[in-house]
Design brief:
four-stranded antiparallel β-sheet; hpI Integrase, Chain A; disordered C terminus; DNA polymerase, domain 1; Double Stranded RNA Binding Domain; three-stranded antiparallel β-sheet; alpha+beta; 9 strands
Length: about 425
Amino acid sequence: MSEPKRKGPDRKRIGLREVRALGPVGIIWDDKVTGFAARRQKGDAVTYLVKYRTAEGRQRWYVIGRHGSPWTPDAARDRAREVLTEVTKGADPAAEKRAARKAATVAELCEAYLADAGAGRLLTRRRTAKKPSTLATDKGRVERHIKRLLGDRKVAAVTREDVERFMYAVAEGKTAARIKTGKHGLARVSGGKGTATRTVGLLGAIFTYAVRHRMRPDNPVHGVERFADGRRERRLSDEEYAALGEALRAAGASGMWPPAVAIARFLALTGWRSGEALGLRGADLNVARRTARLADTKTGFSLRPLSHAACDVLKGTPRTAGDRVFAASRGGPETLLHLKKFWPRIAKAAGLPGEVTPHVLRHSFASLAADLGYSEPTIAALVGHKGQTITSRYLHSADAVLLAAADAVANRTAELMGEPKPQAEVVPLRAAG
C-alpha cells in the first residue's frame, strides 16, 4: 500500500490583506511565484523572502526586505521573480548578498594600502619604496579626506560618479576642519582644487591596489577629469629678493639658530628641494670639487654642482656632533631641522606673503637661470629635475660648464639679495692622461 502524499503548505496570492492578517510566527506562501513568501516572527514586522535551491542542491533563503516602502507585495513579488531568474542562470543571490555585506569598505582598503606601502611592498615608478614623508602625506589625505567622505562605502560599490562627487566636495571645502596634530599642534585642513586633484590621484593608486588584489574588476578613478594641478609658479621679485637678504642678515645678527639661517640662504643659492638640504650630510659633499652626491632624491640619484656662494654657506655653517650639515636645534644628531618653524619667521621679517614658501625659492632659482639664457637640460642638472642624462649616475664630479652655470645663477641671486660676491678659489686641474 503506497504512502499518502505529504501535504505541502497552503498557498495564496500574497496581498495587503494577507500581510495585515498574518499572525506572530506565521508565514504565507505565494501561489503565483514558487518560493516567494511573507513571514512574521515575534514582532510586528513582516519580511518578504524567497526560498530556492542552488545548482548544487543547497537550499537558500534570500531576504528581499521588510513590508513597507519600498516593499509592497507586488514589488517584492517582482523582485522574487528576478532572484529566481538569476538562480536559473547558475547564480546564488543569497551567497552574493552575504559576501557583499562582508566586503571591505574603502576605509579598510586604505588601511591595507598604507600598511603595504609602509612595509615597502608597494613600489613607485622608480621601483623604490615610498619615502616616510610621502607616506605621511598619503596618510593625511586618507584620514582628512578619503575616509571622511568615502570611508564607509563598500569597495566594489564605488562608481566613477562617486569619485567625481568626492573631488568636487574636497574642492569646495566640504572636508575643511581644524584638527589636533599632537599635544599642542593644530592643522588647518582647507581643501581646494589642488588638494582635490592630488587626493584623487592617491585614490586612483589605492583602487589600482584593489584591482590587483581582486577586490573589484575596475578602477573607478579612471576617466575622471581632474582640476589643473595648480603647481606654484610663483617667483620672487627683485624687491622680494632684497627683502629676503636683509631679513637673513638680521636673523643671523639677532641670534636665530645659525643652521636655520644658513639653510634658507643655501636654498635660495641652489634651488634645491628643502628635503634634500635638510637631509644633507657631510659624506655627500666634495667641497674641493664643488659637488654634492645625493643618493635618494625625489627623482632618484642626483649629482649637483655647487657654486662658490653655496660652498661658502656650507663652510660657514657650524657642525654639531652628527654628520648632518644643517643640524636641528634640539634632539639627537639624527633629528631633522624644523624648517617649518624657522621659515615663517624669516618670511615675516622680510614682509613676504604667506604664499612664499621654500619651494618658491626653488622656482625662483630656475627662473633666474632661464633669464640668464641657460637651457632646460642645464637647469635640470642644476636643480635635479627629471630628465637628467643617465650618464650622470656614473660621474664623480660636476663638469666646468655646470659649475660655471651654478656660479652665474648663484651670483645673480646673491646680488639681488645684497650679499657680497663670493671669492672664487683656484683649484688646479689634473693634466689630461
